[in-house]
Design brief:
The protein has 164 residues and is of the alpha+beta class. It has one domain: Mannose-Binding Protein A, Chain A (Roll), CATH 3.10.100. Strands 1, 2, 3, 4, 5, 6, 7 and 8 form an eight-stranded mixed β-sheet that branches. β6 and β7 form a beta hairpin. The two termini are 31 Å apart.
């Protein structure tokens, strides 16, 4: 039992140490920076993003991100968009399909997990689709998003704070 309690304390502690801030992120002429913590990339405002290949529906993906003290990735600024485009381009072979992000339909509008409405400039052509409620990104449509049935299983992108 003492070993189990130690593991419960040690694992979150290792996660805290794992992601370190190494400076600015996603400036137009700079390379995307990977952290020292397996697959997490620096993102603006002291955050890091990561791709997850285990397909889940939008709600399951959001719960998975919350287990990591994060949430599905949100995009609000051109700098954030640039980070996502760079990550998808850098890992194009691995991240080829659609991936859930933290935007879904709430009432008549699409908004992120904090309630910020999506900018119309981010939609791919012929999007959003009728009767779909959750939003994805894909390397096939860099810098743009599309909508999909929330219960379909897709890969996903998480975002979380960087602990200093």
């Amino acid at each position: 039992m003492a070993i189990m309690r130690s593991a419960v304390v040690l694992i979150p502690l290792l996660l805290l140490v794992c992601i370190l801030d190494t400076g600015e992120t996603c400036a137009p002429n700079e390379e995307l920076t990977e952290t020292d913590c397996g697959g997490w990339y620096l993102y603006p405002n002291d955050r890091a993003m990561k791709y997850f290949s285990n397909a889940k529906n939008w709600y399951e993906a959001q719960r998975e991100c919350k287990k990591l003290n994060g949430y599905l990735l949100t995009v609000r600024t051109p700098e954030e968009t640039n980070c996502v485009i760079k990550m998808l381009a850098k890992n194009r072979q691995q991240y080829s399909g659609p991936m859930w992000i933290g935007i879904r339909k709430t009432g008549p509008i699409f908004a992120d997990v904090d309630g910020y409405p999506i900018n119309q400039n981010y939609w791919a052509s012929n999007q959003p689709r009728f009767n779909t409620g959750c939003v994805f990104v894909s390397s096939a449509i860099p810098g743009r998003v599309g909508s999909h049935n929330c219960f379909d299983k897709l890969h996903f992108l998480c975002l979380r704070k960087i602990w200093k």
